[in-house]
Specification:
The protein contains 13 helices and two strands; from the N terminus they run H-H-H-H-H-H-E-H-H-H-E-H-H-H-H. By secondary structure, the chain is mostly helical. The protein has a domain of 210 residues. Helix 8 packs antiparallel against helix 9. The longest helix has 27 residues.
Length: 335
Amino acid sequence: MMKFANVIGVSFMAVLLVLLPLLLPAVGLNISLGTTVILFALAASSVNVLLGFTGLMAFGNAAFFGVGAYGSALFIADVNANLILGLIVGTVCSTLAAAIIAPFLIRRRGIYFSLLTIAFGQVFYFIAYRWSNVTGGEDGFSISKPPIFGGSSPTLNGSSYYYFCLAIFAVLLFVLWRIMRSPFGLTLQGIAQNEARVRYLGINSDRFIFVALLLSGFVAGLGGALYSVSIAFSYPLLMDWHQSGDFVMMVILGGVGTIWGPVIGAAIYAIAQNVLSSFTPAWQIIIGGMFIFFVLVFPKGLLGLGAARRRREEEASQDPDVAVVPAGLIEGRQP
């Protein structure tokens, strides 16, 4: 019954995303909002890799998002590159950024990990803010939307760019779903539940966290690269810790540790921001109150309740005298 409900839920979400270019104009909203929802969902999913599956509170993923945005935008502007090449360069830049800071993070846990992610995120922010002759400084810089393959190939705009982003998003969501059910993903979940036990099994948890950071940087950077092309602009506030906090908020709203939770959270946040900001300058206060309400009423997020129920059912089916170790954990000794 639970699996059938999951299939229905996934099918509903898929149909809703496909029809979004038709639904948004019908309620007076622009299709660009749908693109923003998808790309923010990618950034929130990158946080979910660390927070939801590895148990590490990350407050610096906006740095990866911003590095991907700047890397793509600068390359497109300076080399007159096509869209595909620009996205590749932006994603590589964000993954390299994750690889640079990962050695400083992999041995830290708890509040120390969180504070270091904030600190490194602000380092990237101030580089973009101060290096004005390259990044445009506080004002950022604009780009022209590039053709998808260069030459005489078409430039994607409006609904065509939305569906392009949706296709990439669907592939990445499926890949994340597969990864989190692989021995590697199950090992990350084991680290979140009981890292001491994982180490006792002879598994080097630091290596798995290193790879999780690279995966998180890759996903966030691709979202940032797509976002800079979507708005044809890149600016330092994309890297600010406030933006990182927004991504964490999206994950918590939708459901920590669920695949679709970041999507739901990103939709709630982006649509609320767009609608409320057009009515009142106090929209941030309203969103803050809404976040408090969701945390109090749905402490595990909108989709987290179902995930928690499934985990309880799985644990109830286990022999209570046998220590529960995630299936595949032993096989996942190497990342």
